[in-house]
């Protein structure tokens, strides 16, 4: 599986955080990864581990997002864009295996697929501020 496909699975799991109790999170990851077709053991472990690491950093990520956006605090953002931003910010700040430009590009691609018409530009704008 390509990294972009794995990233998309991570996005989908993280999106569910907004709608479920945090105590269910580990169970949710397990259930989701059991249903992932075409993924080997290393890919499943990658998705689980990275998703858990991102979840742990959400308060810190949200603080970064709130300090770099004007008029768009995380509480006002639509959940798709917020999830994409959380994933990208984690990759930009804490995942040394992902270059900043790749994190931004992949986030914009996710926004094109899952967000509104304005989503890609919004995601790109926010991440560009964080990349400086």
UniProtKB/TrEMBL annotation:
One of its GO terms (molecular function) is RNA binding. Gene3D superfamilies: NusB-like. It comes from the Bacteria. GO terms for biological process: DNA-templated transcription termination; transcription antitermination. Residues 6-131 form the NusB/RsmB/TIM44 domain. SUPFAM superfamilies: NusB-like (SSF48013). Pfam families: NusB. NCBIfam families: nusB. This is Transcription antitermination protein NusB. It comes from Merdimonas faecis.
